[in-house]
Protein 1
Amino acid sequence: MFEILTTDQMYEADRRTIDGGIAGDVLMENAGRAVYEEIVRHWSPRSVSVLCGPGNNGGDGFVIARLLREAGWSVRLGLMGDVAAPKGDAADHAARWEGASERLSPALVVGADLVVDCIFGAGLARDITDDIAVLVTTINSSTASVVSVDVPSGVDGNTGMIRGCAIKADLTVTFCRAKPGHYLLPGRLMCGELAIRDIGISDQIISEIRPNCWRNDPVLWRAGIHWPGLDGHKYHRGHLLAFGGAAMTGATRLVARAARRSGVGLLTVVSDPSVLPIYGADSPGVMTAPIGQIETLLNDCRHNAFVIGPGYGVGDDTRSLVLKLLHQCRSTVLDADALTSFADDPSTLCFAVQGPTVLTPHEGEFGRLFPDIEGDKLTRARAAAKRSGATVLIKGADTVIAAPDGRAAISAIEAPWLATAGSGDVLAGIICGLMAQGMEMFDAACMGVWLHGRCGADIGPGLIAEDIPDHLPVILRELWLASRKKA
Ligand SMILES: NC(=O)C1=CN([C@@H]2O[C@H](COP(=O)(O)OP(=O)(O)OC[C@H]3O[C@@H](n4cnc5c(N)ncnc54)[C@H](OP(=O)(O)O)[C@@H]3O)[C@@H](O)[C@H]2O)[C@@H](O)CC1
Ligand SMILES: Nc1ncnc2c1ncn2[C@@H]1O[C@H](COP(=O)(O)OP(=O)(O)O)[C@@H](O)[C@H]1O
Ligand SMILES: [K+]
């Protein structure tokens, strides 16, 4: 259930299911019944208006209206266009509706306690305009509860973008699998609670259409975790070099603590000698080395992972050091200043990426490195990953992680408490720590985002970045115990 399907993949899954012998009108009946079941689970009988658009989303509406009416609810049904308009499966279900139909208008919202939005689903093809926009505004400013079918009308299922305007739902019921627009902003804000309901499309069919986007969940990457073996020693868990800036030392101190809490065997902060005592005094388990020893450090292959950027400073020195590090082809995480230092020359950075590399920009940093890449976050992360050869993670409430081969994951954990200075530094440290332990770059980025999100959600109000590393053992233990149960 963690796959995320584009609307085209969803149409393909429908088509293959229909070819396999389940008729389209049965799928529509199943879809309508799933929404009906969610409605009666959430609300007691009340006056409801079901608003039907001209396509199959409207077809689902006829099923929902019929089932609610049969259950004794007071139902009004509004239809866009004339009564003879529905085609195909929607027409079949329209014919089974024995109640009255009204023309779709704001009058249907007056006196309704519940509005069922079946105006547009996967087939939204252009911006909402004029009379439908007035209806959307009326619904959004009414006190009625709102259930959206498949997607809130006006939200683009593939991108999460709002096409003109969109309905704000309390509950969205989608079918088979979620679509990107359920998790990407701003679509996610319009969905309310999300229910993903089976309508009879088999897992076999979903695997045949080879989805390459998932909701970020341990199912994706838990097999790639390197738990320490009974006979292991610290060098089996990696030796990470964290490059510390001379002015903002707090950033790399956060990086270091997070990396160590993620399980890395050894960690050395490498910095200007003038600030080494600050890094050394921060935590007794941290080792330090002056930047002047860089060649010696790099000659030691046991130093298998590098993280650079947080608090490091923007400029030529940073750029040269990043290129030197990338030349080693070892696991590397580039964040913050390590990215911004290439704002004038991003192609040099992309060209230099050869080994396992994760770029962790927030939207501002992404825009500096890839100003020509446009579109929704999923599309942009994928394009940047393909161009650079790195795993690219665009941070935010809807963090997207994309691999150069097109695989992508979207974070769905709600943890707005993470929006605080230093929290991104912690994320960079976690990801690099996981890579140092041998985890593949895309898996490490996904797992890092998940651990970070779970810490944020658990700690909640009052969170400061310093809290996150020290909460990691709680979440890691959960994963570890689950892995032992499986074995
Ligand atoms: N077997 C299945 O496939 C199943 C499908 N299911 C359901 O079907 C839904 C997809 O159905 P769908 O493809 O008919 O698309 P839908 O969203 O109803 O809209 C299409 C219509 O809207 C129109 N239109 C578009 N944008 C517009 C605008 N801005 N302003 C005005 N008009 C606009 C467009 O017009 P056109 O662009 O063609 O001129 C067309 O007439 C899916 O979300 C799910 O709920 C379930 O029953 C499970 C089984
Ligand atoms: N609304 C939000 N919900 C969840 N996570 C968020 C939200 N806003 C920001 N974050 C997360 O907080 C972190 C902030 O990182 P960043 O912008 O690099 O800050 P800093 O550089 O101060 O560490 C990122 O991991 C980002 O995904
Ligand atoms: K809808």
Protein 2
Amino acid sequence: MTRIAVLGAGKVGEALLAGLLSSGRSADDLMFTERYPERAAQLTEQYGVSSVGVAEAAKRADVLVVAVKPQDIDPLLVELNELITTRTLVVSMCAGLPTQLYERCLPAGVPVVRVMPNTPMLVGEAMSAVSAGTHATEEHLTLVEEMLGSVGKVVKLPEAQQDAVTALSGSGPAYFFYLVEAMIDAGILLGLPRAVAEQLIIQSAVGASTMLARTGQHPVTLREAVTSPGGTTINAIRELEKHGVRAALLAAIEAARDRSVELGKAHEED
Ligand SMILES: NC(=O)C1=CN([C@@H]2O[C@H](COP(=O)(O)OP(=O)(O)OC[C@H]3O[C@@H](n4cnc5c(N)ncnc54)[C@H](O)[C@@H]3O)[C@@H](O)[C@H]2O)C=CC1
Ligand SMILES: O=C(O)[C@@H]1CCC=N1
């Protein structure tokens, strides 16, 4: 079995480890590095996966999944440059960072695959997009697609689209959580107990997303089915339009895309 090391076991690193374990992968084939020893000990206790140093990860793993913040990448690349060969596949999950950065800083010919996952990986419902770097072969891509396919859905896209993907599905869960949070507040405004408002909205979100995933119907059709002539929903829709919610989402996602581009530019060669 392919041995995978996650470098940086924060929110995404943990989601990947948890998702891979739930999909049936053995803890013996997984390892992680983590800068904070307390965090490392807690994850080992919870998941039974070993915490290792970066040198051991580079020596033992076939795939190194980089899941540190983009701002923390430089010292890690300096370390890895001394430790890896072209036999190791490097998978970057970092927002904005191009495969070219890795190819420039690591030994010549190292295969790199850029991935943008999202946190529902934790529950096997990730949406991930993968793009091959210069030296990544079809076999490398297949390996990464299999790994991510066990924790959700995967699409293969040109790397030029990764900043848009990051804004859309990488950050996407946050937008849904934000909407849920705001709708629970509306329940409070209408005088419902918080626990009741939470239950009503969370189950409505689960129901709506299951319909989207299972019926194959367009969101407009599903929304129209809830919007009765002279009924309640259309009054709410009028307010959403009046407050520019659609335009706000377009602008918000564009701003996220711009930030992803900016994170990549911060690592361009001088
Ligand atoms: N949080 C999210 O929803 C998503 C995040 N990403 C990307 O995933 C990466 C990680 O994000 P998060 O998990 O949210 O960040 P995080 O801050 O929760 O996790 C990063 C972890 O890396 C550790 N770390 C940093 N440098 C290290 C080093 N040299 N050696 C070992 N451990 C090190 C930190 O202690 C921390 O636990 C980022 O690059 C982000 O752009 C991608 C998709 C979604
Ligand atoms: O906010 C961020 O930078 C990361 C990348 C995609 C989702 N979270």
Protein 3
Amino acid sequence: MGEVDPAFIQDIQHRPKAASSPVQADGIPLIDLSAVVETAGSQSLGGGLDGLVADVGRASKEWGFFQVINHGVPPEKLRRVEEAAREFFRQPLEEKRKVRRDEASPLGYYESEHTKNVRDWKEVFDFLVQDPTLMPASYLPDDNEATEWSNKWPDYPPELREACEDYKEEVEKLAFKLLELIALSLGLPSDRFHGFFKDQQTTFVRLNYYPPCPAPHLALGVGRHKDAGALTVLAQDNVGGLEVKRKSDGEWIRVKPTPNAYIINVGDIIQVWSNDEYESVEHRVIVNSEKERFSVPFFFNPAHHVMVAPLQELVSEQSPAMYSPYSWGKFLITRKRSNFMKLDVENIQVHHFRLPPSQADS
Ligand SMILES: O=C(O)CCC(=O)C(=O)O
Ligand SMILES: [Fe+2]
């Protein structure tokens, strides 16, 4: 294939730089979680973690991104998912399309996602951590009906479902630990965020498959974006391609694959809960002409009925609330809806809920 469908072609200013010398992200902090993982089971975090909490706080503030090692997720569980995912994506399109996502149930396989109205060079398979999950029936603000979303598992490969279900249990434990560390780093009780995720969290896991691309200088695996949820726990293979926009100078920095590490990033919801103390940072994925790449993000999201707003404890006269509350469920389905059509307007973003300075002052 010499020619690339124009739907994939990025505007000049968003194309990757000549790929010869991407800036490697030595700067993205690497955090060792052994001290946390040793705390038993579902118990909340206790004392003695000050250094770790400070590292997580600094990384969240300066980068919005960090990597973790000794995180407690058994590597063979991720390997099983990757192997099954490779089998799945290797099939002909018509097989994969048997579990294609549709507007009624946006889980399963999808090959034509758009980010900022440009098509991504990737295929995905999404599944919910809670199956089924309650979601708003409509994006319209006055419609209070709820509906159930359910997973769509393919017949082939038969081991995909069990591998995925086994894996998400492990990553969920890690996600809660990270949430606790972030709460502590903001001076909050470690379980401050838990209530938002109890009963009906809307977390989903995505299997990302990036095929080799004949025009890696024109297209992106995923266009620049911020993650809309609370926290993302991402596994990437050893090919590399994730780039993070460095806060200090706006430079795109490549995140070097680190064996057995997870990449963690603060999403828009933590940005709002923290009242801008932490920021959700833009990132994108570069593709290449030789190698396929896999990644597995776990998008840790609260229940659909949660109204997202700056936490009371972090708001004061000196530091007024920067956002008006918004419904997470409505936000999420408005986003999903836009993936099915090219919109003339900008997709829904948290900055649409930002209060003007005069209101934030009052
Ligand atoms: O593939 C990656 O490394 C990141 C993917 C990503 O940012 C996303 O799916 O939101
Ligand atoms: Fe992302």
